[in-house]
């Protein structure tokens, strides 16, 4: 069990080394794309996530989490390559669609693999703690990538995307060594039947487990708002007079604080009820979102950092609740697009 968890941790660290995460909007703007065009390519990315979340979830169910992670990681390499060689709206659009495909293949796969590993050894109770560690490690990795990305961008943006490609090539190593616990084999069906079955399963889960309705809607609403802040906040920070290096520092600080927050999430779950966490979390999110809009530069940065931390705290608690409610973990049941800080 410990060996598999270690390889999951190693994979997460390498797969989260997106050196452009705090800078890609700035990069596209420097490449000549207007904010409208950037909005369009970003919309294409999210559209690809929505359209492909179900079929990629089916692939994970039929062929395993390892296969899903492998394909997703290869797509990440493709994303870095297209961004590196891109010189037109169409190529950058292709790059963002590739990133969206990557997200759908990896969405929930690491969490599901970790949960199945713990379940195989009867250690499901450790999931919130393990998942908190996974988030913490991802944030540390992403924070390092943001800091290095800001420094690399000051030299040459091509180094940023060369780093993305290299890190995801290295991520293929832990994927190879991952052990996937045995699970129920699904009957192979036509693509149409698979799609229909997955939709029906998702609808059944939604109908049979009303307790997940509010948490899911709450989580999606928070994450949707934060996606907008993260993506367009990059250019907003530039317009506030911050350099790419300092933007990288801000995102790095957010990630490091978030790593600590993810580590203590399980303590919050033990102390307060899920309802209390959801209610107070929403009120705090609303408060600091308002402050983000009407604050001076230091207030904007502070509000941004706190907003990210609220989602970081809530995420492991949410997935633990979701896993308990439905009794098993399968990506693709519901459309959960993870593009947070």
UniProtKB/TrEMBL annotation:
Q: Which Gene3D superfamilies match?
A: MFS general substrate transporter like domains
* Short name of any one Pfam family annotated for the protein: MFS_1
A GO molecular function term, named singly, is: transmembrane transporter activity
Q: How does it sit in the membrane?
A: Multi-pass membrane protein
Write out the annotated subcellular location.
Cell membrane
Classification via InterPro entries: MFS, MFS_DHA3_Transporter, MFS_trans_sf
Keywords from the UniProt entry: Membrane, Transmembrane, Transmembrane helix
| Entry keyword annotation includes Metal-binding | no
Query: What residues form the membrane-spanning segments?
Result: 7-27, 39-60, 67-85, 130-153, 159-178, 214-232, 244-262, 274-294, 300-319
Question: What GO cellular-component annotations does this UniProt entry give?
Answer: plasma membrane
Q: Carries keyword Chloroplast?
A: no
- Name the record gives this protein: Major Facilitator Superfamily protein
């Amino acid at each position: 069990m410990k060996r598999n968890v270690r390889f999951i941790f190693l994979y997460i660290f390498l797969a989260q080394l997106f050196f452009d995460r705090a800078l890609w909007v700035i990069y596209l703007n420097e490449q000549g794309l207007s904010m409208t065009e950037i909005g369009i390519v970003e919309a294409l990315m999210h559209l690809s996530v929505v359209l492909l979340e179900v079929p990629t979830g089916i692939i994970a169910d039929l062929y395993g989490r390892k296969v899903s992670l492998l394909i997703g990681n290869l797509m990440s390499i493709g994303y870095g390559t297209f961004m590196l060689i891109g010189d037109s709206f169409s190529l950058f659009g292709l790059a963002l669609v590739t990133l969206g495909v990557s997200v759908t293949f990896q969405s929930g796969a690491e969490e599901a693999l970790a949960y199945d590993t713990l379940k195989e050894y009867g250690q499901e109770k450790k999931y919130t703690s393990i998942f908190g560690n996974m988030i913490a490690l991802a944030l540390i990795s992403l924070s390092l990538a943001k800091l290095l990305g800001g420094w690399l961008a000051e030299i040459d943006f091509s180094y940023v995307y060369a780093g993305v490609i290299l890190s995801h090539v290295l991520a293929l190593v832990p994927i190879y060594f991952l052990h996937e616990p045995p699970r129920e084999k699904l009957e192979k069906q036509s693509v149409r039947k698979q799609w229909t079955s997955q939709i029906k399963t998702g609808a059944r889960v939604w109908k049979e487990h009303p307790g997940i309705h509010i948490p899911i809607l709450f989580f999606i609403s928070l994450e949707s708002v934060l996606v907008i802040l993260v993506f367009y906040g990059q250019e907003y920070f530039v317009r506030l007079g911050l350099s790419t290096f300092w933007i990288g520092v801000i995102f790095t600080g957010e990630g490091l604080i978030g790593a600590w927050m993810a580590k203590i999430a399980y303590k919050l779950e033990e102390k307060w009820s899920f309802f209390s966490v959801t209610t107070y979390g929403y009120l705090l999110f609303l408060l600091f979102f308002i402050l983000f809009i009407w604050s001076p530069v230091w207030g904007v940065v502070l509000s941004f950092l706190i907003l990210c931390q609220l989602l970081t705290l809530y995420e492991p608690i949410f997935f633990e609740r979701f896993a308990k409610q439905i009794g098993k973990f399968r990506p693709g049941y519901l459309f959960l697009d993870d593009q947070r800080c």
